[in-house]
Amino acid sequence: MRRRRKKNPQAAPRIGLFGIFGAGNAGNDGSLEAMLLFLNAARPQDEIVCICTNPAQVRRSLGVRALPIGSQQPLSPIQRTRMVLFGRIAHELRNFVRAYSICRTLDALIFPGTGILDDFGESPFGVPAALLGWCLAAKLAGARVSFVSVGAGPIHHPVSRFFMKRAMKLADYRSYRDVTSKAFIAGIGLDPDKDRIFPDLVFALPAPQTGLVPPAARTRTVGIGIMNYHGWRNNPKKGESVYRAYIGKMATFTAWILDQGYSVRILTGDAVDRKAVADLIAALAPMEAGSRSGSIVAEPIANLHELMREIAMTDFVVASRFHNIVCSLKLCRPALSISYSSKNDDLMADMGLAEYCQTIEGLDVGKLMEQFLDLEAQGDLHRTALARMNTIYQSRLHLQNVALVSQLPQHESGSLAGTGEESGETKGLTLLDIKPDPETI
Question: Which residues pair with 67 in a beta bridge?
Fold first, then answer.
């Protein structure tokens, strides 16, 4: 069977963007938006289709054509019986055939950012199996496969690791958002020597518009980022004790911040975090207010732009979710990280804030208070350093954009606007021609 592009050589290239988008995670959706902004500017004639978790939400929020990752057709009683008899095999085969039929219409399949190469809260036959199925379908259909600024690892389940490793082996282009991700890929038996490290795609998003209340005209404010965390497997029953300990410690720290004369803005990064916000506020209620003059604000946050607007109203941030930290550093807000994986630590170290990290499950509130006081004392120095690093990150992301333009298929009827071909900027350029900044290795 021949692909759509061969049937119509004059058709614009068609690019699929794959990810866990539209499901309520602001960081994931921000990564998609950043890739769309780049493609719309550099490749305005391309047709874009998003293959995602919640197509309806992606269509509403970003106005892009979207399809579900797997078949969403209801199963008949006979099909449900077959699922019981034959397990996952028939279901996965059905999804693969559907993926192949879609990939036959694509010229490229891109995985834009996100921590898609870990198994946080995932079974092997969720995202890991879908990744392998779609990558295999794309390669059989003749489409290029690119993983762009992705996070990788940990992948604890051996079957998930098997699926994801083979998906990555099929890729034509791979880049990672941190050193640990690249090292993890090497550790599971892939050769990443030609792969590069570039910043998280969210650093390419526009910052909030000016006009917010200036620092001198408002109460000193700390952003407290809270998440609905129940352990790596994200099992509410087995991880309830972990969750309760985390909420209790964050409530103790938040009360202390209020006692220091700060106001607090509570930050989230996923729709599921609303429960954690309610539990944090409930835990704070019985604590003595003392002479607190600050207030607690917990505005609903639906996307990364709303998150950044909240962070823009703060002086410091203490948070757990990765993209809470990303947005804080992007806006030059000194941050403390309380993480559930090493991705936070890598970013904080790259930004010169390595000493301001803890883990959720090993959180020491007394140490956190000491870290905050030190961060506060060094605040101006950190803001200057963050501004400098943001400039470097923008330069690195530009290098990746040039690499991506050279990797993607060209319109056969002529050059594409925004690619730089007319000026010779990217003509004949390949990924190996781009010499990354030494700090990206």
Answer: 51
d(CA 14, CA 47): 5
Whether 56 and 162 share a structural domain: yes
Q: What is the dihedral of CA 208, 210, 215, 218, to 10 degrees?
A: -90
Two tokens, residue 54: 């919640």
Residues 6 or more apart in contact with residue 422 via CB below 8 angstroms:
415
Residue 385, domain member (yes or no): no
**SS3 label, residue 275:** helix
Between 21-25, 72-76, 195-199, the lowest mean confidence (pLDDT) is in 72-76
Which of 64, 59, 30 has the alpha carbon at shortest distance from 46? 64
Check: CB of residue 154 under 8 Å from CB of residue 184.
yes
196: three-class secondary structure by DSSP: strand
pTM above 0.85, yes or no: yes
Task: Supply the range of the domain harboring residue 219.
Answer: 215-377
Dihedral sign of CA atoms 166, 169, 174, 176 in order: positive
Q: Rounded CA gap, 201 and 204, in Å?
A: 6
Distance CA 99, CA 419 (A): 29
Residue in 175, 203, 202 with CA at minimum distance from that of residue 441: 175
Q: Which residue has the tokens 């978790």?
A: 53
Strands 173-176 and 357-359: what pairing? unpaired
Examine the domain organization and report whether 362 and 410 are in the same domain: no
Residues 384-435 have pLDDT tens digits of 999 999 999 999 999 999 999 988 887 665 443 433 333 333 333 333 333 3
